[in-house]
Q: What sequence folds into this?
């Protein structure tokens, strides 16, 4: 898509490819959401979207992606990649920025289909978007957060070198819950071998990391 080249952006890892989803990818992602992405007794998300019925989760997953595309601007963007291994959609990895041209800061979020948990995929796909942020976009900091009982997410952050950055109290299913914040500095980051970024040049203005989007996309 010439006017929105982010659809041609790819981030690759030793096992995975991250890209904006095609319509077929969205169908596969929606199916994963309907099947469940975490133990229903817990809630890892500040917005409890997974409490919806399976059909509503699937539909909402598709609508969320369309909403992110339509709202995209260099001043405020959210890039929700599908995570693909050998042609199979495994989940989604988001990287987002607000006033990135000034702040040089991104945040991340993700989920995987339940049957893909425990295989190191969460770490690999987070590493992929950190590679994009630091080595591709020129970010200075990356933020993440997790509820205090979301040990898997916190473990990924610590494994990748994030440092504790305080906490906040959020409303989770009508109850107060502690959410821990983590921050990773560019100075503490080294991309491991085997990671690549493809098709980034024309996309830079869309992330607030270059010139005028319309000029670059022409």
A:
């Amino acid at each position: 898509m010439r006017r929105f080249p982010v659809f041609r952006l790819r981030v690759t890892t030793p096992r995975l490819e991250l890209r904006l989803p095609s319509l077929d990818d969205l169908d596969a992602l929606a199916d994963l959401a309907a099947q469940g992405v975490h133990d229903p007794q817990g809630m890892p998300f500040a917005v409890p979207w997974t409490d919806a019925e399976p059909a509503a989760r699937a539909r909402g997953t598709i609508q969320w992606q369309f909403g992110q595309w339509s709202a995209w601007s260099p001043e405020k963007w959210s890039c929700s990649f599908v995570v693909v291994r050998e042609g199979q959609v495994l989940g989604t990895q988001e990287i987002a920025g607000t006033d990135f041209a000034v702040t040089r800061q991104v945040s991340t979020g993700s989920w995987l289909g339940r049957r893909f948990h425990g295989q190191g995929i969460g770490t690999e796909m987070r590493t992929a978007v950190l590679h994009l942020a630091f080595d591709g976009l020129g970010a200075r900091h990356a933020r993440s957060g997790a509820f205090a009982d979301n040990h898997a997410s916190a473990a990924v952050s610590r494994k990748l070198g994030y440092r504790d950055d305080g906490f906040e109290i959020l409303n989770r299913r009508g109850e107060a819950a502690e959410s821990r914040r983590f921050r990773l500095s560019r100075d503490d980051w080294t991309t491991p071998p085997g990671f690549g970024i493809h098709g980034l040049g024309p996309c830079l203005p869309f992330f607030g990391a270059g010139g005028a989007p319309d000029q670059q996309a022409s």
Remarks:
- Residues 5-217 form a domain with the Aminopeptidase fold (CATH 3.40.630.30).
- The two ends are 11 Å apart (CA to CA).
